[in-house]
Backbone:
């Protein structure tokens, strides 16, 4: 008001003609409205995470699984083609929800401190919810969690949490609704139950909090092992994968190339690379038709081919069912008339998994595959096809382990329809992106602690125009698998292997190791990786909670092998 009075007095003194004054006054009167309008229409946010889904599983990324609802979001939104996660469930969720690399917040292994699945975030690393609250958002969590603390103590107003080791899609045991045990139902299937919960939260929101925006965090466990799906869903894919993983990979690669998603050669499957953790006794429990190497399909026996084809049929059924459930959530948004002004982001927490193990109640070889008493994993043959056309799997930081689709849909905010974005990005970018879009702010200190600079960049400019967001580098470390990307150069090494160097501008399949040809580039990137790792470890060892047990005395040693819920 002070400023306005001063301005009017100035105008009067200047003896400006009346029409100009009236026009100026009109502008002043209108000025508050755009601000108010923007606040009133702040977008709702829906983040949907898949679990262990491959880069090319979705139809809109060249896949052969029916995913019409996600394809529809892609058709009217954006698909990022080089979007990264951290190669594993819990570090990805920590990075997504805080905007820091997982090690910076002790959510992946750091030598000398409780970390990884047992790590506690520093007080300066609250979740995204805490930054959305002051903007009026209500927040709902439905599904997998894998972050330290409980959702209700971390800014969520409701939470359905899939717990209990996540070892059975058909059992309610261990799952909680606002921290209370949930009831078993005859047709229980957790993918459907998670969507039901999200829809229930949205309905309540429409009834009681219509004037406020919402953040719905919907985290499916699909298609993480065990391969469990309703029999009718499996039946529709029973014969779809009999051609084998080599043919399916080639078909996916051809479609992705035609769609413009990739433009590099398909890498060879690595027949010597099996699951990241060997469980030889578990392999025996699965019978003679399970194999733990991605052998050429032609080398399999007929019985092995039948068995393997059904496994992929179950994986497809899990993704197909997830898409159907997403469709029900989208229908709820349309029903609430908020579909256009809800910013929807869909991604997977890591690449498809080569793991093979048996947990929970074990595996009954006589039971129908994919039913409640079986415990099957995708394994390296099909995870190679699922991650087409990228190399390796979940836990590795080669491209197959760390790439995910990222679908962005927000008709009210993004003009582009059906476009690709080749701008690289990472889960660490989601918090800054959402803060920029919503007008949220991170304070400089939290609970008396200085908030360290976060590594992510807002992808909002890239959503408007491709190629507008650059990062100094992307960094990875998981289970001693390590990598760094600067521009299109990527330096990567498996836990026990030497550095490999790739030019991702023409070789995202990581087929041509250029390390011997460019030793100076290797050295330069290695120095950068070492520097970031040292700084990260130093940060992780500061601002410790009062009672933190020391562990992992050996650098690189993992405390994750016995994680109950990878
Ligand atoms: Ca995962």
Residues:
């Amino acid at each position: 008001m002070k400023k306005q009075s001063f301005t009017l007095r100035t105008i009067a003194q200047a003896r400006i003609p009346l029409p100009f004054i009236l026009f100026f006054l009109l502008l002043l009167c209108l000025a508050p409205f755009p601000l108010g309008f923007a606040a009133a229409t702040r977008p709702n946010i829906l983040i949907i995470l898949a679990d262990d889904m491959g880069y090319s599983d979705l139809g809109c990324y060249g896949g052969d699984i029916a995913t019409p609802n996600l394809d529809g979001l892609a058709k009217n939104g954006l698909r990022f083609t080089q979007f990264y996660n951290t190669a594993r469930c819990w570090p990805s969720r920590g990075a997504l929800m805080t905007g820091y690399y997982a090690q910076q917040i002790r959510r992946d292994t750091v030598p000398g401190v409780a970390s990884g699945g047992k790590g506690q975030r520093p007080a300066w690393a609250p979740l995204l919810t805490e930054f959305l609250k002051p903007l009026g958002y209500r927040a709902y969590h439905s599904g997998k969690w894998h972050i330290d603390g409980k959702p209700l103590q971390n800014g969520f107003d409701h939470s359905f949490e899939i717990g209990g080791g996540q070892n059975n899609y058909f059992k309610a045991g261990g799952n909680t609704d606002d921290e209370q045990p949930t009831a078993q139902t005859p047709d229980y299937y957790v993918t459907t139950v998670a969507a039901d919960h999200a829809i229930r939260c949205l309905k309540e929101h429409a009834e009681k909090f219509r004037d406020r925006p919402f953040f719905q965090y919907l985290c499916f466990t699909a298609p993480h092992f065990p391969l469990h799906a309703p029999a009718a869903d499996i039946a529709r894919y029973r014969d779809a994968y009999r051609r084998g993983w080599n043919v399916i990979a080639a078909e996916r690669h051809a479609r992705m190339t035609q769609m413009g998603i990739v433009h590099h050669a398909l890498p060879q499957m690595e027949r010597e690379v099996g699951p990241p953790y060997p469980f030889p006794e578990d392999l025996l429990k699965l019978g003679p038709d399970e194999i733990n190497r991605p052998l050429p399909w032609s080398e399999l026996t007929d019985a092995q081919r039948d068995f393997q084809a059904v496994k992929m049929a179950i994986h497809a059924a899990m993704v197909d069912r997830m898409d159907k459930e997403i469709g029900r959530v989208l229908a709820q948004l349309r029903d609430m008339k908020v579909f256009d002004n809800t910013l929807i982001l869909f991604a997977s927490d890591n690449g498809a998994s080569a793991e093979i193990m048996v947990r929970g109640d074990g595996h009954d070889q006589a039971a129908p595959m994919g039913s409640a008493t079986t415990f099957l994993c995708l394994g390296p043959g099909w995870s190679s096809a699922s991650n087409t056309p990228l190399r390796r799997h979940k836990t590795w930081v080669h491209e197959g382990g760390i790439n995910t689709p990222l679908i962005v849909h927000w008709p009210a905010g993004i003009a582009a329809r059906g476009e690709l974005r080749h701008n690289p990005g990472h889960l660490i970018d989601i918090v800054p992106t959402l803060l920029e879009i919503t007008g949220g702010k991170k304070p400089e200190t939290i609970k008396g602690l200085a908030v360290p600079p976060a590594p992510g960049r807002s992808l909002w400019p890239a959503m408007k125009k491709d190629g507008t967001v650059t990062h100094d580098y992307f960094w990875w470390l998981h289970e001693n698998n390590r990598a760094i990307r600067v521009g299109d150069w990527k330096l990567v090494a498996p836990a026990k292997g030497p550095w490999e160097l790739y030019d991702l501008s023409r070789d995202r399949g990581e087929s041509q190791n250029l390390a011997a040809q460019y030793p100076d580039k290797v050295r330069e990137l290695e120095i950068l990786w070492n520097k970031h790792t040292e700084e990260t470890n130093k940060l992780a060892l500061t601002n410790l909670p009062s009672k933190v047990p020391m562990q992992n005395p050996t650098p690189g040693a993992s405390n994750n092998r016995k994680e109950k819920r990878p």
